[in-house]
Design brief:
With 692 residues, this protein is mostly beta strands. The protein has 3 domains: 26-293, no CATH class; 302-469, YVTN repeat-like/Quinoprotein amine dehydrogenase (Methylamine Dehydrogenase, Chain H, 7 Propeller), CATH 2.130.10.10; 558-692, Lipocalin, CATH 2.40.128.630. The strands form 11 sheets. It has a 7-stranded antiparallel β-sheet, with no helix packed on it. Strand 23 and strand 24 form a beta hairpin. The radius of gyration is 27 Å and the shape is globular. It starts with 25 loop residues before the first strand and ends in a 5-residue tail after the last strand.
């Protein structure tokens, strides 16, 4: 059979002229739905995932040596539940140029537009449907003003409107630049340009991490996913039936809640009525009965949930460590003794939930450690070790931000540090308004602060987590610098007086917190390691010069760890990635033998190090969204009895403590299930102490 690839000089099916031929080729095929929510940065969404739905079928032709030579992409507009109009485009991860031909057909199958030619740019984007309201025209049979702008989503529409289709053919100029095994996951980068708002909506992927939005109560106050960060674009199986207009996805698919709770690790068939709990009568299938959304909320969220990392510290100096952690759902900060009991004076209620780790340090100079924690309304709270508020601090906390009419979430760990080295400690904290603040020990804002972290404020809940500031003297001048990443893609370095030293731009948002150390002894001062949503790990000099960068397989939210894990006297760099792996490099950028190591799901947790098995050597410890805590030796091997099951996703760094006075350290992990688990002892311990 002739399975070569040809690009015709025009769209005439009888045209046999070609611009380029490869063959024979081995073809594979995959089809998906891509569904969009288009209310980006407007303060709410109904989360019905039907604002625009497109079916994409991708056929990939590869050469005998595994290189991508040709593509055939078929598109069909399926539904449009939006009052906004859009332009639909598709970005392709191909390199070296090539030729293309695009034909768009109306609902009757008539060709209404064609274009073809050569392209020379890498990662080209092709406009498939210039206007989605044209690709799925308005339905004259719908008279209800609430629904008349929608096509194939309204409950009273008892017919199916056929949408436009399109076919894009691409033949690559140089297949050797396009190894098929190195391509990112399908369907690559389909995206919307929202005409009315000038917003662009992509799938969450490297380079486009900032396409999530927090679920709030503005549309559905009973949603079980309030507080969750959901993507604005989603890839679905083509057997999925989208919700009717205005019905959040959890109303039709209750098991979707557990899918999100596990970060996609469990309930993966939540959409399939054959194996999952569903309310298919509320899905759009060409005329289901209209239902009020308020009637449908039958799924309850967990009464407790942890996103923040636990912190282990001896608050009162009695030689026994405590566990400090903020609760996302219960709106409180909790302190446990190492025996699993809530410490007297705790928990303490806050003004909202907690998504980031607490800061710990002696703010008032009494010789005991204090606890500083921020909440999701942007209030900073400071407590003595016994749970009482620090002197000078309001019982409501200190509201961060320089706008009294706005509340920005606090998504980065506050740092308690003697910033100007005068013997008194301050609090350095980044707020999601894209500003960096310094507060005195009594809660007063220091003069000259805040300073800017770029123009990327979290106005509508688009930040997932923010980079925390790190304080170190990186240039050896005897003065502290503050190093912090931002959602504007930059890493910033400020002096203690608020003067900007330098900034370095990556290609995506920075949620990772920097690591600082003498990684490259031949470079002056200390080096900075940072991860970015663009999937790269960067090693920067003290002056902001790139020493090297290395790619992981997907987005990096994890914060890097510097450790001499193999005892050679040089620091290694260890970090997790959303590609389900934990990576490790030597200081020269070479990959450490035995790495990366693979988990069962994304690794947003940050690795830590300690001697877990008491063999005299440090191990790497990290949590994963698959609900396991992993421990590895320097060579990538796992000690006996590891990994261990914590039950639910672990979004943050674990901690280490000796809970049972033996020679081995235990691992403390806070999970999305709402339990803190102490793993590694004779029996696992669960906090709060509950029956399992």
């Amino acid at each position: 059979a002739d399975n070569s690839a040809r690009i015709p000089e025009d769209i005439d099916p009888d045209d046999t002229a070609t611009t380029r031929i490869f063959g024979p080729l081995d073809w594979d095929n995959a089809s998906t739905y891509v569904a969009f929510e288009d209310l980006k940065n407007v303060g709410w969404s109904d989360w019905d995932y039907n604002d625009f739905i497109v079916k994409i079928a991708v056929a990939r032709g590869k050469t005998s040596d595994g290189n991508l030579a040709a593509l055939r992409l078929d598109y069909e507009a399926m539904a449009r539940g939006a009052s906004y109009n859009h332009r639909f485009l598709h970005g392709l991860p191909i390199y070296g140029g090539g030729s293309y031909a695009l034909a768009v057909r109306n609902a009757d199958g008539q060709v209404i537009s064609t274009q073809s030619g050569d392209f020379t740019t890498d990662e080209p984007a092709f406009a498939v449907f210039e206007r989605t309201q044209q690709a799925l025209p308005l339905q004259s049979g719908i008279t209800d003003n609430r629904y008349k702008l929608f096509t194939n989503t309204a409950p009273m529409q008892t017919w199916v409107q056929k949408g436009y289709t399109a076919q894009l053919q691409v033949v690559l100029a140089d297949p050797t630049q396009n190894l098929i095994d190195a391509l990112p996951p399908l369907p690559w980068d389909p995206y919307l340009e929202v005409i009315n708002t000038n917003q662009t909506i992509h799938l969450v992927q490297p380079g486009h991490t900032g396409n999530t939005q927090v679920v709030n109560s503005n549309w559905d106050p009973n949603s079980p996913l309030i507080g969750f960060d959901l993507p604005l674009a989603y890839v679905f199986d083509t057997r999925w039936k989208w919700p009717q207009e205005f019905l959040g996805i959890w109303n039709v698919y209750p098991d979707y809640v557990q899918y999100e709770l596990s970060d996609g690790f469990t309930n993966q068939n939540w959409w399939d009525p054959n194996v999952a709990t569903t309310h298919m009568e509320y899905a759009w299938m060409g005329g289901a009965l209209a239902v009020m959304a308020a009637q449908l909320n039958q799924v309850q969220a967990n009464p407790s949930r942890y996103y923040a990392a636990p912190v282990v510290a001896d608050l009162d100096g009695d030689g026994s460590p405590e566990i400090i952690v903020g609760n996302l759902v219960k709106w409180q900060v909790e302190v446990y003794n190492s025996n699993g009991r809530m410490r007297s004076g705790w928990p303490q209620l806050l003004r909202s939930g907690v998504k980031t780790a607490a800061g710990v340090g002696d703010l008032n100079g009494d010789g005991k450690l204090d606890v500083v924690v921020g909440d999701l309304r942007g209030y900073l709270h400071a407590f003595n070790a016994d749970g009482t508020r620090l002197a000078g601090w309001s019982s409501q906390g200190v509201k961060l931000g320089d706008r009294p009419d706005a509340e920005y979430r606090l998504l980065a760990q506050p740092q308690v540090v003697d910033l100007d080295q005068n013997g008194a400690r301050e609090i350095v904290v980044a707020l999601s308004d894209s500003k960096l603040y310094v507060y005195e020990a009594n809660g007063a804002l220091r003069a000259g602060w805040p300073v800017s972290l770029g123009d990327a404020p979290d106005i509508y809940g688009s930040h997932v987590i923010d980079s925390a500031p790190v304080i170190a003297d990186i240039d050896g001048d005897g003065q502290q610098e503050i190093i912090v990443g931002s959602y504007d893609h930059n890493l910033y370095v400020y002096r203690a007086n608020g003067q900007l030293v330098w900034k370095y731009e990556t290609r995506d948002v920075i949620m990772s917190t920097a690591a600082v150390g003498d990684v490259a002894p031949g470079s002056p001062g200390l080096e900075i390691v940072i991860g970015s949503g663009d999937r790269f790990i960067y090693l920067l000099s003290s002056s902001g010069q790139l020493l090297w960068k290395r790619a992981t397989g997907w987005i990096v939210r994890s914060s890097p760890l510097l450790v001499d894990i193999d005892g050679d006297g040089a620091l290694e760099i260890v970090v997790g990635s959303d590609d389900k792996k934990v990576w490790a490099w030597r200081n020269n950028g070479d990959r450490l033998t035995g790495w990366p190591q693979t988990t069962g799901a994304a690794v947003s947790s940050s690795p830590i190090t300690g001697d877990v098995d008491h063999d005299g050597q440090p191990e790497i410890v990290v949590g994963s969204d698959d609900g396991y805590v992993y421990v590895w030796n320097a060579d990538g091997s796992a000690p006996k009895e590891w990994p261990k099951d914590a039950g639910y996703p672990i979004k943050s760094a674990p901690a280490l403590l000796n809970a049972d006075s033996d020679v081995e350290l235990e691992v403390v992990a806070a999970t999305y299930e709402g339990a803190i688990k102490i793993l590694g002892g004779p029996l696992p311990t669960y906090l709060p102490l509950i029956r399992r």
